[in-house]
Specification:
Blueprint: E1 3-7, E2 10-13, E3 18-25, E4 34-39, E5 46-51, E6 58-60, E7 68-73, E8 78-83, E9 92-98, E10 113-114, E11 118-123
Parallel strand pairs: 2-11
Antiparallel strand pairs: 1-3, 3-8, 4-5, 4-9, 5-6, 7-8, 9-10, 9-11
């Protein structure tokens, strides 16, 4: 059974930083893309960042470029999201995802494994 477990969310003031982690178990994703999406109340889920199996290719939503950084440690089957200069509009439930396919995906339809999410709340 594949599980993706996120951690690292919390309450932070605007301008602060958080580092999210997502540990996968049940199968290895060292050859597959992984990513982070978020969903705010009343809004649709949106992509935050995705990363290829090697880490050589990444994609960021325009709203987080220059502030967030996605990375992965294949030996630990884990993907990270470093979030700096946080804004109140970054408040959302952040979920990590993975796919058994090899193609690099930037939409949620490209991922079939999902974690339950970790809440990030940024106060002004």
């Amino acid at each position: 059974q594949v599980q993706l477990i996120e951690s690292g969310g919390g309450l932070v003031q605007a301008g602060g930083s958080l580092r999210l982690s997502c540990a996968a178990s049940g199968r290895t994703f060292s050859s597959n893309p992984m990513g982070w999406f978020r969903q705010a109340p009343g809004k649709e889920r949106e992509v935050v960042a995705t990363i290829s199996w090697s880490g050589a290719s990444t994609y960021y939503a325009d709203s987080v470029k220059g502030r967030f950084a996605i990375s992965r440690d294949n030996a630990k089957n884990t993907v990270y999201l470093q979030m700096n200069s946080l804004k109140p509009e970054d408040t959302a439930l952040y979920s990590c995802c993975a796919t058994s396919k090899t193609g690099f995906a930037i939409t949620d339809s490209g991922y079939e494994y999902w974690g339950r999410g970790t809440q990030v709340t940024v106060s002004s």
